[in-house]
Amino acid sequence: MSRHPRRCALGRALALSVLLVATASPSTASMTLTFLDVGQGDATLVAADGHYVLIDGGRGREDAIAPLRGKGVQALDLMVATHAHADHIGGLVSVLEEKSVDTLWYSGDEHSTQTFEAFLDAALGSGVRYVEPTRGHSRTFGGLEVTTLHPGEQTSGSHLHDRNLVIRLDYGACSAIITGDIEGSGERAILRAGVNVSADVLELGHHGSRSSTTTEWFEAVDPDYAVVQYAEGNPYGHPHGEVLDRIERMGAEMLGTGAHGTIRMRCSGGEWRVHTEVSGSVVAGDHEPGTDREPEDGAGAGCIDLNQAPAETLEQIIHIGPTRAEDVIDGRPWSSVSELEAIDGLGPARVRDIQEQDDACVR
C-alpha cells in the first residue's frame, strides 16, 4: 500500500465537481442504523431526517445497491469508504454508478487491486465531492452529526487499516461509532487524542478480530450494544472468542450479521429499538488461522504469491489445476486469498482449504 500522485489527482478532480442531490422524503425524528448482511464484509446505512449516509458497501456489486433500491433511496448525502479492502468498497462501485452521491469521504490511500481501480473510476465518473477527512472533521445533516475520529492529520502506516476511517454518529441523545477495520493501535490513538468516544452503539473493529476492540477502547466507549459484521463460518474465525468474552464480561448486548442477518436499530430520544432479520446468537468462529490481517507489501517467505507465481507453481496449491491457474493469472491483481471465491468452482469451502494449507499468499 502506498500513497501515489494519482490520489492528488483524484482530490483535485473531485473537488471541482458539484452535484445536486434529490431531496429525500421526510422521516420522523429518529436515527436508524441498518447493518446490512453482506457476508464477510461491512456495510452500514444511516438514515435521519430524510438524509442518508452509507458507510462501506460490502464486497459484491449488489450488496449495498439492492437494499438502497428496496428502500427507495435515490440519493446519498454522504458515502464513507473506511479503507480500500474489497470487502468494504466493492459494493460502493455500483452505488456510485447508479445513485446520486453528494460527498465521498476517504483517506486517500492507494491500493493496487482491480476493486480499488473500479472504485476510483466510479468516483471520478460520478462527479462526487471528494474529502479526505481527519480527526474532528464533521458534517451535519438535519439533526444528524457525522464526525471523523480517525485518522489524525499525522497518522501514517504501512497497512490500510492504519488510516482506516472511524466515524462517530450523534443524533440528539443517540450515538454510535462505526469502526471499519480499525485495530488496537488506531483505537489507542483515538483515546490519546482525548476526543469523546462514549457511545450507545459500537461496531466492533475488523469483524470482531482479536486485533481490535481492546479492553481500554471498549471500556472508554462503554456501549449498550456491540455489533459485529461477519459471515458465519468465515475462514478467519471471526468473531474471535476472547473478544466476545470481553464484551460479555462488560455487559453489552451482542448483535451480529452472521447470526441475526440484517440488523435495524432505531433511536429516538435516547431510546433504542432493535429489529433483526432472524433470531440467533453470536458465537466465536470455528477456525483460527495464523493471521486474519491481509498483507499489503509482502507475506511469508515460502508462500506462493497469487500475483507473481507462474502457472506451474500455482498448480501446487490445493484445488488449483491448470485451468484454475490460468484463471488466477487472468484475475490479477488479487488483494487477498479469500478473493479466489470469484473463480468458477472455488467456493468458500475450497478457499478455506487453500487458506488452511497456508501455501498461497498475496504480496
From TrEMBL:
Question: Where is the signal peptide, in residue numbers?
Answer: 1-29
Concerning SUPFAM superfamilies, the annotation shows: Metallo-hydrolase/oxidoreductase, PsbU/PolX domain-like
The UniProt keywords, alphabetically, are: Signal
Looking at the record, the residues that make up the Metallo-beta-lactamase domain are: 40-232
Span-the-membrane segments of this chain are none
Q: Enumerate the Pfam families for this protein.
A: HHH_3, Lactamase_B
Q: PANTHER family of this UniProt entry?
A: BETA-LACTAMASE DOMAIN PROTEIN (PTHR30619:SF7), DNA INTERNALIZATION/COMPETENCE PROTEIN COMEC/REC2 (PTHR30619)
Q: What is this protein called?
A: Beta-lactamase domain protein
Q: Which organism is it from?
A: Halorhodospira halophila (strain DSM 244 / SL1) (Ectothiorhodospira halophila (strain DSM 244 / SL1))
Could you read off the lineage of the organism from its UniProt record? Bacteria, Pseudomonadati, Pseudomonadota, Gammaproteobacteria, Chromatiales
